[in-house]
Amino acid sequence: MKLDVIKLDGATAGTVDLGDEIFGLEPRADILHRVVRWQRNKAQAGTHKVKTRSETSYSTKKIYRQKGTGGARHGDRNAPIFRKGGVYKGPTPRSHAHELPKKFRKLGLKHALSAKAKAGELVVLEAAELAEAKTSALAKSVKSLGWKRVLIIDGAEVNENFARAARNIEGIDVLPSMGANVYDILKRDTLVLTKAGVEALEARLK
User: Fold this and answer.
1) Which residues contact 23 (CB under 8 A, 6 or more apart)?
2) Radius of gyration of the chain from Cα atoms?
3) Model pLDDT, residue 10
4) How many CB atoms lie within 10 A of CB 49?
5) In 3-state terms, what secondary structure has residue 17?
6) What pTM does this model have?
7) 48-100 pLDDT, tens per residue?
8) What is the mean pLDDT of residues 126-150?
9) Is 198 helix (H, G, I), strand (E, B) or coil?
C-alpha cells in the first residue's frame, strides 16, 4: 500500500510503502474489542471497598435477649439486615486485569492500524520535529491540516520541542512507537505516523 508523505506545512514529501501484513488487513471488531477490554481492565484501579460486619462502628453487644420477645433472633446491630450494618459479600480491592497472549495483542495492534488505513484516517508525516517549542506555531499547522482529535506516533523517541509544543494543544496526543496501543489509536479521529514511527512499528510487528 502506497501513501503520500506530508510535512507539517502541508507540502508533500514523497510516498511511503506500507506493508499489507500490518496496514492492509480486514479489520475485525471482535479482535479489537478483546484487546481494548484487556487494556481497560488492566488500567482499572479496583479500589472499590465496602465495610463488612466486622468493620462497622456499632456495639457488638447483643441487642436483646434470645427468647421471649416475639421477634426474630439477632446478635448485634452490625448485621447486614440492619440499616448502616455491614455489607455482605460486597466489593473489595482487587485487580481487574486478565491475561491475553502477546501474539493476540500484536494482532490487535495490526488490526487497529489497518482499521485506520481502511477508513482513510491514517496520515504519514515526514518528521515530528520543531526548531523551537512554540505551541502557537504547531497549533497553526495543526489547524491548517484540519486535525482535531489526533494521535501522533513517532519513532523510538519523541522530539522534545515537538512534545512540549503539543502538550498545551487540546486533542493532540504524542507517543513513541513503543507506546502505540489499540485503545489510543481507536479513540482518536486521525492517526499520524512519522516515517520513523512507520519503520519502528513495522519492526515491532514483524
Assistant:
1) 1, 113, 114, 117, 122
2) 27
3) 87
4) 13
5) strand
6) 0.83
7) 999 999 999 999 999 999 999 999 999 999 999 999 999 999 999 999 999 99
8) 92
9) helix
Identify the sign of the CA torsion 147, 173, 6, 10: positive
Cell numbers representing residue 168 in the block: 498545551
Tell me which residue has cell 515537538. Answer: 162
User: What are the tens digits of pLDDT across the range 21-57?
Assistant: 999 999 999 999 999 999 999 999 999 999 999 999 9
**Three cell numbers written together for 155:** 519513532
Query: Rounded distance, CA 132 to CA 136, Å?
Result: 11
Using the Cα atoms of residue 124, residue 113, residue 196 and residue 154 in order, give the sign of their dihedral.
positive
Kindly tell me the sign of the dihedral angle through the C-alpha atoms of 108, 183, 203, 179: negative
Per-residue confidence (pLDDT) for residue 138, from 0 to 100? 93
As to burial, measured by CB atoms within 10 angstroms (0-12 exposed, 13-18 middle, 19+ buried), residue 174 is buried
* Residue owning grid cell 479489537: 32
The residues near 33 (Cβ < 8 Å, ≥ 6 apart) are none
The per-residue pLDDT for 1 is 85
- DSSP state letter for 63: S
According to DSSP, the β-strands at 172-175 and 190-194 are unpaired
Is the CB of residue 2 less than 8 Å from the CB of residue 24?
Answer: no
